[in-house]
């Protein structure tokens, strides 16, 4: 399996985000997280409920249920029965995320998506992030605008008990989000720890870095033949 691509390793890393989640609503945003969630359901987490981001629950390319977004907000998000994987234009050393704008909020240099569901997601249920291009522009000391709530702000707001930041998967490795500092959990095959450090503004905990696992033969078949025969994964990484 020497021809395994970086995108396929990233899919495995995203699938592993959901290990142990059980029967929970999953909302992955982006091609790689979506493929990871679908792979997890087909292998080690068969009870996952996969959302298409709007009103349908999907499985194996077909609709298996209907859950309009209003119901998601009313009955799922407040009870913590959801794991969302969002994008991030900036993430800082405190775990804050920005998808709103770059620069001063009153006069930004670049307007992005806006707050979207960032605040509600991060103070109600498990949240992970997917970053297809790991760089110092993304991993910054302080985000310009807080969309997703980090550890210190959650404590200050009195919602730390419901706050569950999990992991960040990037094209270089996997980061573990923790209140005491962000830890480099693993680097993808062919990536060095020094490369991740050079592309991160703040200091990382490097105490126990492993290598992201490769897909098994079965997982590779599912990725290439069943889930993504058109190789859309390679356009994102």
From TrEMBL:
SUPFAM superfamilies: NagB/RpiA/CoA transferase-like. One of its GO terms (molecular function) is CoA-transferase activity. InterPro entries: CoA_trans_fam_I, NagB/RpiA_transferase-like. Keywords: Transferase. Coiled coil: none annotated. It comes from the Bacteria. Pfam families: CoA_trans. Belongs to the 3-oxoacid CoA-transferase subunit B family. This is CoA-transferase. It comes from Amycolatopsis acidiphila. The lineage of its organism: Bacteria, Bacillati, Actinomycetota, Actinomycetes, Pseudonocardiales.
């Amino acid at each position: 399996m020497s021809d395994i691509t970086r995108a396929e390793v990233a899919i495995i890393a995203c699938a592993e985000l959901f290990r142990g989640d059980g029967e929970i609503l999953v909302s992955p945003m982006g091609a790689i997280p979506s493929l990871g969630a679908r792979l997890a359901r087909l292998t080690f987490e068969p009870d996952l409920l996969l959302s298409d981001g709007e009103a349908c629950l999907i499985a194996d390319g077909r609709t298996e249920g209907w859950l309009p977004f209003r119901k998601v907000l009313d009955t799922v998000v407040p009870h913590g029965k959801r794991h969302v994987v969002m994008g991030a234009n900036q993430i800082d050393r405190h775990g804050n995320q920005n998808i709103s704008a770059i620069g001063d909020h009153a006069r930004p240099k670049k307007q992005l998506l806006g707050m979207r569901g960032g605040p509600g997601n991060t103070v109600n249920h498990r949240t992970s992030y997917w970053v297809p291009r790991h760089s110092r522009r993304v991993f910054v000391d302080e985000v310009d605008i807080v969309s997703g709530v980090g550890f210190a702000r959650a404590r200050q707001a009195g919602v730390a008990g419901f706050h569950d930041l999990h992991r960040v998967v990037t094209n270089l490795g996997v980061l573990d989000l923790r209140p005491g500092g962000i830890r480099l959990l693993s680097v993808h095959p062919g990536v060095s720890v020094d490369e991740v450090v050079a592309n991160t503004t703040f200091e990382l905990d490097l105490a126990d870095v492993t290598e992201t696992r490769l897909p098994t033969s079965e997982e590779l078949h599912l990725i290439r033949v069943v889930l993504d025969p058109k190789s859309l994964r390679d356009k994102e990484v």
